[in-house]
Amino acid sequence: MHKSYPSLLLVSLLAGCNFAPKYVQPDLPVAAQFPANAPAAGIAGQDAASLGWRDFFHDDRLQALIAGALENNRDLAQSLARVEQARAQFRIQATDRLPTLETNGQGTRSRQPLSALGVGASPDAGAIEFTQYTANVGVSAFEMDLWGRVRNLAEAERQRYLASEQGARAFRLSLIAQVAAAYYDIRAGEERIDLSERTLEGRREGVRIAQKRLDAGVTSTVDYDQSVLLLTQAQTELAEIQRTTEQARNLLDVLIGGPSGVASLPTGKPLNPAQQVRAIEAGVPSAVLASRPDVLEAEHNLRAANADIGAARAQFFPSISLTGNYGFASTALDTLFDGGNKAWSFGGALNLPIFDWGRRSAQVRVTRARAEELTAAYQRAVQGAFQEVADGLVARRRLLEQIEAQSRTVTAQRRLARTARQRYDNGIAIYLEVLDAERNLFAAEQQLLQLRATDLQNSVSLYVALGGGLLESRAS
After folding, report:
1. Of 14, 167, 273, 465, which one is least surrounded by beta carbons within 10 A?
2. Where are the alpha helices (DSSP H) in 216-292?
3. Tell me, what's the pLDDT at 39?
4. Cβ contacts of residue 357 below 8 Å, gap of 6+?
5. Tally of domains within the chain
6. Domain extent for 217
7. Does 351 fall in a domain?
8. pLDDT at residue 156, rounded to an integer
9. pLDDT for res 119
């Protein structure tokens, strides 16, 4: 065997050393299935992760608003800028694994008196003038990564970069959900305002009739005052709905990065789930967690901590750095690159840690504790994702029951209000019965509209919780 082969083999083996612990995905502290009291199979639908947001949302106006937010939202722009910072930091760290080549050229002209050099005692003894030119290329302090320290540092930065990418994707999903929630608040507000204005118009007419009946001596001031109470109730409710709706519009403008320009957008659709969103199904937790960017972000951070342990452990072993320089030196510029003017130097440095008062041991403990923290953070992210889906499934089921019950309530309240009005007109009942019936009808209709908006917002939250929204459309 050639005498250099054993040394080459030894260097190859050393170069493959890595003291980072083998990554093992932590146990998932959640059930294998979502809670049985909210089965996803109860509603036929599609897999959320493969369903683009343009396919999920049917409302063209909402689609235009989401597209504007994804393009212009300032918080999303900050998140994407942080991704670029992490990418650049990874590239900086990765370059430490390769030698850095530097080249330079220099020319100097110097004068030294002979007396300063110890030649002649008199300052008038003369001087030496000297000219030198150099041109070099070299490697400065390149560390041989025998124990994987530099490699693990680069891997840690790579994982943090990947985590930042997942963080940006998670924010993107959150932004889509926020835009949809604000939009449904506005649509519910618009429908509630329309209901309030129609109710207000009828109650103004009721006050006018009550005034005539009072003037004719047919009724008392009690009936008139009660009709006025119905009117003021509708006015108060209308002002409140207008306030919250205008605030929701302000929030939407911030989310989409500027004025929404509603006049130029397509007409919005009614608050009907069948017309607004597509039905989705939950699947199994393991599949959901594989597509959740917040869970993937936590896992990448954990992998980075794992690599940091390897880098900390490697500091217990000696490090070797190499330097080298090759070039030319001459007293005349025109002969600088002649063969006889070659100049070179090569060297190495060995750093062998002996005693540091436990500093490196403490660094290893810090990295291990950080890994333990991020393991818990990863498992908590898994639990949070599981809870969001489970909560969404429960809400989907119970909100449907609430809407059905509230619809029956509205129907019954309409009959009751109509009957109370007929009884009053026929002199069978007092106006207080009309007051209560119409007040309850108005409240029931408002609550039904709000429940429909809440149901749509929950559908969006469930869609995002299941990892939907990362694609723009199925074709993507």
Report:
1. 14
2. 221-255, 273-276, 285-291
3. 42
4. none
5. 1
6. 17-99+147-316+360-465
7. no
8. 92
9. 58
